[in-house]
Amino acid sequence: MTGSVRFVLGGRVVEVRDPDPTTTVLQWLRANGRPGSKEGCAEGDCGACTVVLGDLGADGRLRYRSVNACILFLPMIDGKLLLTVEDLAAEDGELHPVQKAMVTSHASQCGFCTPGFVMALFALYHTDRAPKDDAIHDALAGNLCRCTGYRPILDAARAATADRQDDRFDRAEEGIVALLESIRRDAPLAVSGGGNGFHAPRTVDELAKLVAANPGATLVAGATDIGLWVTKQGRRLATLIHLAEVAELHRIEEHPDRLEVGAAVTYTELLPVLRRRLPELADLVGRIGAVQVRNSGTLGGNVANGSPIGDSMPALLALGATLVLNHGGARRELSLDRFYHGYRKSDLKPGEFVERIRIPLPKPGQMFATWKVSKRRDQDISAVCAAFLLTLDEGGRVAELRTGYGGVAAMPARAAALEAALAGQPWTADAVAAALPALDRDFQPITDMRASDRYRALVAKNLLVRFHLSTTGAEAPSLEAAHG
Ligand SMILES: Cc1cc2nc3c(=O)[nH]c(=O)nc-3n(C[C@H](O)[C@H](O)[C@H](O)COP(=O)(O)OP(=O)(O)OC[C@H]3O[C@@H](n4cnc5c(N)ncnc54)[C@H](O)[C@@H]3O)c2cc1C
Ligand code: FES
Ligand code: FES
To answer: Is 112 touching ligand 3 by the criterion CB < 6 Å?
Structure first.
């Protein structure tokens, strides 16, 4: 198997013949004369490596998104426009408006973080023509600066985006689109190098055959988990099968009673739909990682990875989500609460993959909420995450309470004892208080660097109390204010 990864960089098509597929975009850039993007953490946390990818949207226009180059494998940018800090100034040296604003706002000191901030701002410049402060904070939450301080950087963001004019990338769009069209592929990409192979099928059928024929292969969606296996654990991934080129897996179907989310849908693609149809979950998804992570990471990857601290699963468990699993084209549907068997152990059989996630929407009268408690608001991992779906009968008693918890057990799980303790009870503060000890039978949390076992056990209970208060008209003190 031989092949080339092709992408647009510096105004021309670049072809890389049979790279080791686990070479990261950052490693390739720095080894090929582009040292502007920096390596701070090599795990997606600091944003120093931020680059911008461009591809063609359904409307034929260019879509720009910031990503962390340190955890992105080179073949994953096949067919895309890659922009780094070296690309922004014009040939005559004139700086891009976001660069000018960084200079005039004195937003850089040692400069190590600056290329990453500039690229995050450039992505904002091209995704939001008049960003409000919330959007600016969101666009920069994945970038850390250890010396300048954030105030001048926020000033630069405001200055760059006030009275936004078309930049030279807007004016060159036609030419860029033509270059991207010239490297558009119909046949699947396959490359091998350094003893590792990478396949990017284009249809679900191709994917299903490939996965069934290579049961030991590693599936990769956004690589926001897998990237770290390589950069931090030094793992060798002999065969990678990439899901993001399968168009069907990017579909989000909206039904009156449910959403069906393809396994390659990124959080950024999902968020606008969630804001309309399931705003409680949108708030939580908006706190997964930061924008660079949400631009690559997928709900499918979160669920399949099965981390006990994955943030989407508590909500999906409470809502009664099911997974459509595909093995060589044969499909089965499995409830998420039967998917996990233990720490990172799931019901996925060798050669099988998650094709879609079915998310039932709360019915009229049902009450749903989900909360993540972490030390920082953005770019942080949950100490505890919980979700609740409540159905009351006509007498105000609990007809059903479905729960989902993360961070308190070896896997995301429902709190069966708690659910049973409240079934048929009046939905009152007294009944909730009486049921809380059941949570100690459900979970025995551990102590780690994020939280102690006692803190986790207490927060797990307090979140149920908060849910009770929020459903009965009284709102608890804001946890975000306390932990944001
Ligand atoms: C800086 C940073 C911050 C983060 N913050 C959060 C956070 O706040 N909350 C949170 O929950 N997570 C967080 N994560 C973890 C990660 O972003 C999520 O778990 C994400 O959803 C993974 O999706 P992905 O597409 O990148 O998965 P990948 O890394 O591509 O894959 C993850 C795993 O799932 C498997 N897989 C992927 N798709 C499928 C499929 N369709 N079928 C079967 N197996 C599949 C892969 O083989 C792999 O085992 C963070 C990660 C980083 C780097
Ligand atoms: S080097 Fe820190 S996010 Fe990439
Ligand atoms: S300018 Fe030094 S880390 Fe930001």
So the answer is: yes
185-189: list long-range contacts, CB under 8 Å, 24+ apart.
185/78, 185/79, 188/245, 189/3, 189/5, 189/75, 189/78, 189/245
Among the bound ligands, name the one nearest to the CA of residue 302: 1
pTM of this structure: 0.96
Tell me which of 242, 249, 293, 381 to substitute to probe ligand 1's pocket, judged by most ligand atoms within 8 Å of the beta carbon.
293
Tokens linked to 92:
């005559």
The CATH number, out of the four listed (3.40.710.10, 3.40.1190.10, 3.40.50.2300, 3.10.20.30), of the domain defined by the range 4-182: 3.10.20.30
**Does 198 sit in the ligand 1 pocket, CB within 6 Å?**
no
CA distance 316 to 323: 10
Q: What number does CATH give the domain 247-361? A: 3.30.465.10
Tell me which residue has its CA closest to atom 4 in ligand 3: 145
Residues 201-245 pLDDT 10s: 999 999 999 999 999 999 999 999 999 999 999 999 999 999 999
Under 8 Å between Cβ of 29 and 115 = no
Report yes or no: 300 and 311 within 8 Å, Cβ to Cβ: no
Q: Is the CB of 297 under 6 A from ligand 1?
A: yes
Atom of ligand 3 nearest to the CA of 145: 4
For the chain, which residues make up each domain, given as ranges? Answer: 4-182, 189-246, 247-361, 365-484
CA distances in angstroms from 56 to 81, 174, 180, 181, 325, listed in the order given = 9, 11, 8, 9, 29
> 437: closest CA among 421, 413, 453?
421
User: Measured from the CA of 117, which atom of ligand 3 is nearest?
Assistant: 4
pLDDT in tens, 290-310: 999 999 999 999 999 999 999
- What pLDDT, on the 0 to 100 scale, is given for residue 475? 59
51 Cβ inside 6 Å of ligand 2: no
Q: How close is the Cα of 124 to the center of ligand 3, in Å?
A: 20
The DSSP H or E segment spanning 471 is: helix 453-471
